[in-house]
């Protein structure tokens, strides 16, 4: 059985805990590897070595650090297909979706090549007699990233890129469900010229998370995962004086106005609701058509599109629409929530509970589900399902529709489909949600803007990637300097005439 270990000081580091976690092939349900879980002592050792390496790395000028990022981009592109293959085998994503996972992370690394500009401070000359003032953005030291299973390349890249480009060392604890790609990225960074010890990849479970939160050397923690854990990490990090940006769950609504292009809206809903088996924090899981006529026409268009979805392993070809969910437990939780929707009175228009794929009966596949006439008191509306389940909540008016999204406890992403500019502008202005799409179903910003949700989808005041990331991973130092003006005594500046 293959064993997966840690990456410490620029090389594979075999764990000594004797504790392992199984890494599955979600398509077959088989265990394909065993992952070594770190001890607290191993985590602390990685931090100690990172702190030593960070001193020189932090003193390296930003342009040289940016050149490492530039070479890292080249190497990721070189090994894109190889990493996508590994990602698909551990997560279950289709091959094109796995490449997209890597690509969206790569774009943040491309943005980080501009670190010298992003790290510039401010300067005021002659703030007083002979006095200048200036600010410097300096690295925090050692920081940590705790990343989720659903984007095993993108989110680690979102964390490590700005942190390293800003001059920090990073402890990365990836998900134990699909750990191989983060280790591959660490090896590519070393090949790109990152000094040993500046990026340490430590695999573990809750024990490792708590060791990160308790370690006094670590100055900041970035996390993506479920809301309860996000809140736990945020509160515990704050109690130990660490900065934290913690992103949690979501329940993203798409409002479909009567004037919308319903074919366009239906296509968008199918891609946004069922892509990646719904295992996206920016997935659209709630459709809100305004008016009974709009709702009926939308359902009529959704049904044939959903029934044509091709579900299968990534090895079945690039025309597969989505693959299995990540674990058996995830599949069981999705089906439990589907049953709760039926029991609480929602109309199950498309029933995927009996989905079975020949030859992959032990895989973690879940068929597509479509609910209609869902109400806000139902569990399938209140809970993040994280699976291929789309719920339709009918609204009688625009105000009712926007009220649904605004009153939900999550506030990650939302979208509206309409041809009316006034409605779109009002929606974008009023909605209390962090990322908004107008005729765009999954409004994930590009790398030079910032990504982050509101309400219980995000804890902390600085978001991921974009300029916010460099603010998060640096602290500002302001210097007031006084240099008295005038010629120093003893200076000889006269031009002597020739005799």
TrEMBL record:
Pfam families: Aldedh. Keywords: NAD, Oxidoreductase. Gene3D superfamilies: Aldehyde Dehydrogenase, Chain A, domain 1, Aldehyde Dehydrogenase, Chain A, domain 2. Its EC number is 1.2.1.27. Residues 19-479 form the Aldehyde dehydrogenase domain. InterPro entries: Ald_DH/histidinol_DH, Ald_DH_C, Ald_DH_CS_CYS, Ald_DH_N, Aldehyde_DH_dom, MeMal-semiAld_DH. PANTHER family: MALONATE-SEMIALDEHYDE DEHYDROGENASE. This is methylmalonate-semialdehyde dehydrogenase (CoA acylating). The lineage of its organism: Bacteria, Pseudomonadati, Pseudomonadota, Alphaproteobacteria, Rhodobacterales.
């Amino acid at each position: 059985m293959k064993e997966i270990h840690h990456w410490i000081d620029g090389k594979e580091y075999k764990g000594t805990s004797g504790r392992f976690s199984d890494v599955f092939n979600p398509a077959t349900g088989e265990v394909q590897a065993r992952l070594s879980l770190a001890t607290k002592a191993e985590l602390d050792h990685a931090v100690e070595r990172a702190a030593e390496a960070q001193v020189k790395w932090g003193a390296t000028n930003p342009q040289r650090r940016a050149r490492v990022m530039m070479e890292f981009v080249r190497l990721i592109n070189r090994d894109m297909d190889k990493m996508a293959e590994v990602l698909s085998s551990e997560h279950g994503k289709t091959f094109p979706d796995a490449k997209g996972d890597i690509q969206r992370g790569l774009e943040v690394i491309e943005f980080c090549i501009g670190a010298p500009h992003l790290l510039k401070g401010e300067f005021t000359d002659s703030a007083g007699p002979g006095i200048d003032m200036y600010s410097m953005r300096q690295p925090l030291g050692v920081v940590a990233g705790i990343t989720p299973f659903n984007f095993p390349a993108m989110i680690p890249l979102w964390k490590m890129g700005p942190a390293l480009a800003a001059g920090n060392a990073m402890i990365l604890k990836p998900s134990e469900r699909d750990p191989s790609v983060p280790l591959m990225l660490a090896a590519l960074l070393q090949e790109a010229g990152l000094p040993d010890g500046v990026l340490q990849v430590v695999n573990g479970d809750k024990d490792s998370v708590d060791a990160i939160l308790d370690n006094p050397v670590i100055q900041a923690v970035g996390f993506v995962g479920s809301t309860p854990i996000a809140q736990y990490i945020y509160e515990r990090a704050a109690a130990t004086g660490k900065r934290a940006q913690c992103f949690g769950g979501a329940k993203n609504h798409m409002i479909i106005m009567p004037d919308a292009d319903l074919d366009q809206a239906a296509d968008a809903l199918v891609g946004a609701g069922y892509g990646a088996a719904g295992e996206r924090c920016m997935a659209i899981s709630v459709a809100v058509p305004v008016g009974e006529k709009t709702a009926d026409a939308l359902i009529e268009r959704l049904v044939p599109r959903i029934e044509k979805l091709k579900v299968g392993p990534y090895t079945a070809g690039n025309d597969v629409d989505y693959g299995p969910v990540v674990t058996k437990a995830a599949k069981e939780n999705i089906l439990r929530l589907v049953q709760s929707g039926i029991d609480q009175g929602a109309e199950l228009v498309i029933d995927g509970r009996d989905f079975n794929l020949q030859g992959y009966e032990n895989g973690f596949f879940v068929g597509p589900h479509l609910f209609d006439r869902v109400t806000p008191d139902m569990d399938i509306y209140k809970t993040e399902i994280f699976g291929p389940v789309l719920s339709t909540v009918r609204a009688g008016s625009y105000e009712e529709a926007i009220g649904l999204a605004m009153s939900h406890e999550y506030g990650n992403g939302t979208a509206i489909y309409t041809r009316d500019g006034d409605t779109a502008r009002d929606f974008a202005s009023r909605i209390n949600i962090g990322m908004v799409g107008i005729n765009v179903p999954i409004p994930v910003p590009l790398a030079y803007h910032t990504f982050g949700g509101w309400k219980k989808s995000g804890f902390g005041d600085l978001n991921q990637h974009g300029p916010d990331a460099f603010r998060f991973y640096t602290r500002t130092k302001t210097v007031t300097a006084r240099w008295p003006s005038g010629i120093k005594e003893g200076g000889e500046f006269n031009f002597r005439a020739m005799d």
